[in-house]
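[INFO] parsing input record for mannose-1-phosphate guanylyltransferase
[DEBUG] input buffer:
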Amino acid sequence: MSGTENFKIVPVILSGGTGSRLWPVSRASFPKQLWPLLTNNSMLQDTALRAVGSMFTDPIIVCNNDHRFLIAEQLREIGIEKARILLEPIGRNSAPAIAAASMLVAQENPNYILWVMAADAVVQETELLIELVKEAAILAQKEKILTFGIHPTRPETGYGYIEKGQKLSEAEHAFFVKAFTEKPDYQRAVHMIESGNYLWNSGMFVFSAQTMLREMEKYTPELLSLIQIAIKNRKTDLYFERIQLEDFVNIPDISIDYAIAEKTEQMLVIAADLTWSDIGSWDGLWDISPKDKVGNVAIGNVFLENTHNSYVRSDDMVAAVSGLDDVVVVVTKDAVLVTDRRKSQEVKKIVERLITAKQKEAFAHARCYRPWGFYETLVNGHRFQVKQLVVNEGSQLSLQKHYHRSEHWVVVSGVAEVTRGNENILVKENESVYLPAGTLHRLGNPGRIPLVVIEIQSGAYLNEDDIIRIEDNYNRLN
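[DEBUG] output buffer:
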């Protein structure tokens, strides 16, 4: 398209949410954007792949510290090796994240255009979306800020809305923004749909770095000043760019809608006729998933009888549902959810109760991913627990010790390279090694296949915070 040849578009992917309405699959330790919910790729991967090509630079990913290795690995899986991954020490909503990304881009070229996307939204018509991004980018060159509004298909109460103003004469799909509306009740949503003048607020934005920074200087100067300090003081950590907690803790927690979009005079909306969803609930996922002839979505080890218009998923044991309609049943290794599909927005309230009750299942899975692979709790008893460790080829755990627990490692598959005090030991399949409490030790995989180890822990205190790291390949020292 004419006008897009002389600049680059920088994809900026915001990956900070936890997706609690999709519990028990989505949890803080492994949120919905990292799961393959609709395709073979995770939602993050599908989002990144929309912006691959000569028109785009390598992406900027803004995420939290806990997900950094998962995100880096998922990007490598789809061939994106040079992403800039900016780590926030704590969540501070979309405005600080967008300000930080704009500053990074402006340091290279303030005229570059940013395309900001959430990592957890689905768009099915990618080619049409790219054409709309090109249209938005041309307007962004003229110091406009573009958001994307989706033509609504139902009175959805889980989305914000944008009221269209006058059409922009020089663009096919662009309108002035008359007003933003927060998530409405059902009757209000019906009224807005019937008026034909409202769009769902997708949360996508297109603008130049210098335009956004100028508008932030005008409307949120305190936030901008604090972000400038945070970006200046950021540290490089392996292939991550880490913002320091002391520079971020006092930054206002505010969305880009409140900070800029509702105030700026440069705001336009692209009216997009796209199949889009932020998959904010199990009902939303059911709505856009392929269904059988009676409206069911069945994933995994699932058996249905006389069941209609339901979403049933099992990642582990057999899930059998009989004689129910409009339900959601989700089974993981350590939790089961059963809810009315039409009330699945209320799952967030269950998660809040689990957090109050200090149930670890509220925020963590039985399988916990680490940069070297993962571990999974198999048995948790009094003064002992059993875990499965899977170590990627060529990877090592940290050199560490524990004050309160002893460990016994049994190699199930592969070859383990074990450091135990001053010893270096090769442990093969069906062999084992014992590590008394207080012993300096390390587990590595020198082979070419994944190393599978059963770890038996015993002691008075078995929590993960009883790890004293001495050396670590991933800069995770205490």
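[INFO] The mean pLDDT is 93.
[INFO] shutting down worker
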